[in-house]
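FYI - complex with 2-acetamido-2-deoxy-beta-D-glucopyranose, inputs then prediction.
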Amino acid sequence: MEGGLIVLAAALLLFLSPEVQGTAHLSFSNNTQVNITRDGCGVSKLCVETPNNCDPSGNSSCLFASAVSSVPVPPYGVDLSVELSGESAGYIAVGLTANASEGTSMLVICAQNSSDNGTFFFRTMQRNNTDNMLTPTETRVKEIRGMVNGNMIKCEFTVPNLNASNIRSSEATTFSVLLGNGSFDGSVLGAFNLLFGSKPLDLIKPDSNVPPTAAPTTTAPISNTTIMPSNTTMPSNTTMPSNTTMPSNTTMPSNTTMPSNTTMPNNSGALQPHAVLLLLSVLTLSVLLRV
Ligand SMILES: *[C@@H]1O[C@H](CO)[C@@H](O)[C@H](O)[C@H]1NC(C)=O
Ligand SMILES: *[C@@H]1O[C@H](CO)[C@@H](O)[C@H](O)[C@H]1NC(C)=O
Ligand SMILES: *[C@@H]1O[C@H](CO)[C@@H](O)[C@H](O)[C@H]1NC(C)=O
Ligand SMILES: *[C@@H]1O[C@H](CO)[C@@H](O)[C@H](O)[C@H]1NC(C)=O
Ligand SMILES: *[C@@H]1O[C@H](CO)[C@@H](O)[C@H](O)[C@H]1NC(C)=O
Ligand SMILES: *[C@@H]1O[C@H](CO)[C@@H](O)[C@H](O)[C@H]1NC(C)=O
Ligand SMILES: *[C@@H]1O[C@H](CO)[C@@H](O)[C@H](O)[C@H]1NC(C)=O
Ligand SMILES: *[C@@H]1O[C@H](CO)[C@@H](O)[C@H](O)[C@H]1NC(C)=O
Ligand SMILES: *[C@@H]1O[C@H](CO)[C@@H](O)[C@H](O)[C@H]1NC(C)=O
Ligand SMILES: *[C@@H]1O[C@H](CO)[C@@H](O)[C@H](O)[C@H]1NC(C)=O
Ligand SMILES: *[C@@H]1O[C@H](CO)[C@@H](O)[C@H](O)[C@H]1NC(C)=O
Ligand SMILES: *[C@@H]1O[C@H](CO)[C@@H](O)[C@H](O)[C@H]1NC(C)=O
């Protein structure tokens, strides 16, 4: 995607002097209704936000974005419908990047124009992830809707054919999603303050930002059948086989959230069922010894 976008942006910049930024690539919806909620997060739409789990329709400060992707059509990529909500006296922005620490991000900006009575303002920019510089781009965006209420800015839009030129078919829809804000005086967009950067998320999977819930039922098929006799006190002195040292330090994941990386941690994942089996075998052994 980046390569394609850069080439596209460079090609277009050849024809446009920097101060004459056309908006022909933007099409606005005449429906000004913007209603952004958490409804469907993780089920029908992918959501990112900061602070964690905040509610864009709620009372407290919440910078929130959601995305719904069309089914990918190989040569054309996906149409990505985005909602963005947050507070700023200038702009809020959502970015997509393959790697937040190198290359570039596609940044979509929703702003209030303080030199025009706080009216809604929309732009697409390219952010250099290394030096944070913003460069205007002509990314096509359609069905743009936006509203400003005080410092509350909300917008919805669709980026068509996202990733159309990308060859990485298997992960072509996987991006880190960035959230941030900045100043806007009516002509100059200030530096992008990165407030949140997600792990790589597959935009076509609404649940790709849902922490996997602990699923002991799947890892321990015994759970249903071997209900431990609740009050039979364990035989205290049945000498355990001395050498089967219990894996004392296999720290079970204390909470449900998986380790930050997206790839399943193979090692610790394999350890848990192992530890459970070991525990069960020891318990079974002690029960057998007692009988
Ligand atoms: C607004 O929307 C209506 C119905 O969708 C359409 O008929 C009309 O042409 C639109 N107006 C503009 C200015 O886009
Ligand atoms: C916003 O959408 C939610 C459902 O997504 C709905 O329950 C609510 O009534 C809507 N609010 C407005 C003001 O349209
Ligand atoms: C919204 O916030 C205001 C003050 O910030 C507070 O007085 C009010 O109770 C809040 N309403 C809800 C529904 O939380
Ligand atoms: C600014 O917007 C407010 C509310 O929309 C309106 O009442 C006011 O007249 C506007 N002022 C100017 C100078 O356009
Ligand atoms: C991003 O900025 C760095 C440092 O200024 C520069 O070396 C690099 O070429 C820039 N990348 C792009 C794509 O503009
Ligand atoms: C497992 O539990 C389910 C629901 O509690 C029950 O229907 C099923 O018979 C149980 N299976 C066994 C092997 O006990
Ligand atoms: C289990 O033990 C507890 C306390 O040791 C006792 O209060 C309870 O009645 C016992 N339950 C059964 C079913 O024996
Ligand atoms: C049980 O274990 C304790 C401590 O390990 C020991 O002092 C005691 O003699 C043992 N009792 C029997 C019956 O083995
Ligand atoms: C059992 O442990 C002892 C020392 O704790 C060790 O010398 C011995 O080799 C172990 N045996 C096995 C089978 O691991
Ligand atoms: C368990 O691991 C923690 C750190 O991972 C360590 O501080 C602690 O001493 C270990 N305990 C044992 C019994 O090995
Ligand atoms: C575990 O989660 C609970 C609630 O989700 C939270 O209160 C607690 O601080 C968490 N503990 C750790 C170690 O993250
Ligand atoms: C995630 O995993 C990759 C390699 O799989 C590694 O390079 C990277 O440092 C890891 N990141 C974190 C936060 O653990």
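The two ends are 67 Å apart (CA to CA). The mean pLDDT is 73.
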